[in-house]
Amino acid sequence: MNQKNSLGLNKCFLELDNPFQLFEKWFEEAKKNEINDPNALALGTVSKEGIPSVRMVLLKGYNEKGFIFYTNLNSQKGNEIKENPNASMCFHWKSLLRQIRIVGVLKQVDDKTADEYYKSRAYESRIGAWASKQSSVLNNREELLNAIENFKKKYQDKDNVPRPKNWSGWNLKPQSIEFWLDGDNRIHERLKYTLDKKGNWIKSLLSP
C-alpha cells in the first residue's frame, strides 16, 4: 500500500473517496457472512421532547440518495420522525467485526417507490400492514389475529392488495457515514466521511 496516499488503515477500507461505494463492498461481505438479516440496523430517532428511541429495522434499499426502510407512518418511530426528521442508523456485523454509523435527515419516499416495494412483499406481510396498528396497545393477541383474518376476507385476491396510506418508506439522506473495524486491545480503526457544504465527501480518521 502506498503510504504517501494511504491513511494507514486495513485494506478493507479500500481507499475509496465515495462512502456509498465502500458501504456496498462491506454490505456484500455481510450478506456472505451474517447468518440472519445482514440488512438489520439500529434506527435512532428523537421525540419532540428530546427523548431518544432505538429499534431494529431492515434496510430495503439504498443508493447515493440515501438508505430506505419501511414502516407504519403512525407508529412511534413514524410520529417521532414527523416531529424531528434527524436520525441515525447503525449496522453491526459481528461476524465481520465491522460497524457502520450513519447520521442524516429522513424524508418520506414517493408513492411509486412505496407501492413497488409493497407489491414485492408476501401476501401475509401486506395483510399485516393493514391489520397492525403498530405501537398501539393491544387488549390481547387475539385482537390482532382477528384483524388479520378480517383483512384476509376483505382482500382475498392475493395479487390485488392495495398499500395502506399510513404505510410507506423513509429515506435517510446521510450527512456523515462512519466505518468501524474492530482492533486488537480495543485499538479500533475508524474512518468517517462528512458531507461538506459543496456536496463533497471529506474523509477523516478518528481515534478509537
Describe it for me?
- Helices cover about 25% and strands about 35% of the residues.
- A hairpin with a 5-residue loop joins strand 1 (about 40-45) and strand 2.
- It is α+β, with helices and mostly antiparallel strands.
- It has a domain at about 10-115 and about 170-205: Roll (Pnp Oxidase, Chain A).
- It is built from five helices and nine strands, in the order H-E-E-E-E-H-E-E-H-H-H-E-E-E.
What is the C-alpha radius of gyration, as a whole number of Å? 20 Å
CATH architecture annotation name of the domain at 11-114 and 168-206:
Roll
Q: Terminal Cα separation, in Å?
A: 22 Å
The poorly predicted ranges are: none
Question: How many extended strands?
Answer: 9
How many DSSP helices?
A: 5
Secondary-structure class: alpha+beta
- Shape type: elongated
Mean pLDDT across the residues is: 94
* Major beta sheet summary: 9 strands, antiparallel
CATH topology of the domain at 11-114 and 168-206: Pnp Oxidase, Chain A
Q: What is the CATH first-level class name of the domain at 11-114 and 168-206?
A: Mainly Beta
Q: Give helix % range.
A: 25-40%
CATH superfamily of the domain at 11-114 and 168-206: Electron Transport, Fmn-binding Protein, Chain A
Order of helices and strands: HEEEEHEEHHHEEE
